Amino acid sequence: MDALLEHLPLIVPLVIVQLLLMIIAVIDLIRIEKTNGPKWVWALVVVLVNLIGPILYFIFGRRND
Amino acid sequence: MNLWFVLFKKECLEMVRNFKVIWVPLTFLFLGAIDPLTAYYMPKIVDALGGLPEGTVIEIPLPSPGESLLMSVGQFDTLGVLIIALMLMGTVAGERKSGVAEMVLVKPVPVGFYISAKWAAALILVWLSYFAGMLASWYYTGILFGWIPFGEFLACFFIYGLWLTFVMTMTIFYSSLLKSPGLAGFLSIATAVVLGFVSSGFSHWIKWSPALLKTYAGEYLLKSALPDATVPALLVTAGAIIALLIFSSAVFRKKELAG
What we know:
The structure holds 2 protein chains of 2 kinds. Chain A is elongated, with a radius of gyration of 15 Å. Chain A contains 3 helices and no strands. By secondary structure, chain A is mainly alpha-helical. Chain A has helices spanning 2-31, 39-48, 52-61. The model of chain A has no long low-confidence stretch (mean pLDDT 86). Chain A has one domain (2-61). Chain B has one domain. The radius of gyration of chain B is 21 Å and the shape is elongated. Chain B contains 10 helices and no strands. Chain B is mainly alpha-helical. The model of chain B has no long low-confidence stretch (mean pLDDT 90). The interface between A and B is medium-sized, with 20 and 23 residues.
């Protein structure tokens, strides 16, 4: 338990970064009108695939027109 | 100049609207921090998982601070380049497809302004993200393996940053040359990979190659002395960036006239 507490300050920031990316992607997914491909698939990808999911969504999922 | 700022503002606004300004720095931050962390915990993870026959001795040496930072640079060299190319591949090609480019250029806007405003906005985003990533790597390296002097870190940061700027400019160039964003992204990644491959293979003949900047940044970090070829390589890269920018505008202008 002590060991865990000692390492926590190092790992927590990374978890927060991951969560932030996911939350931003989810907010955007809710607000956006249309995505490339079905919305619910993107929702699954964003929530289930750590880190890569939101990035894939931002690069390929958003329609830029 | 006023007109240029209007275009520049439009680019910045767009980056805020499509969240690039948040997700790119966060991703780079993650990429930078993850390598020192895994290098540090790898022996512990192997221990905890066990499953090795008794008596097996596997020594996984901990990296030196310099090596740890270089692992993150390697991460930017692969995934970072990939992200930069993918995120910028549509910057001109996509706007041409959707008609935004025509809407902008219907007004008396010089093509050079249009391209350079895009370039400047992308430059700020890339360097901000890259700095966030390198700083995270430097900080984690410092905590886990020992501190690298901040001056040396900055030198390494700027030397390698110029290569990323080159990749970024190349993506904008391909994006203004080609109609398809996908092809532009693919070609800029392919060029970066081939350039890196050829440069490391023939490093004796083309010491000034932009792709060798990563090697020079690494050598500087590990040996604290700049290799002789660094300055020519930096100059060639800067020249190539300017040339690519001029080509981008020229190529785009021709395309516009052609139809």
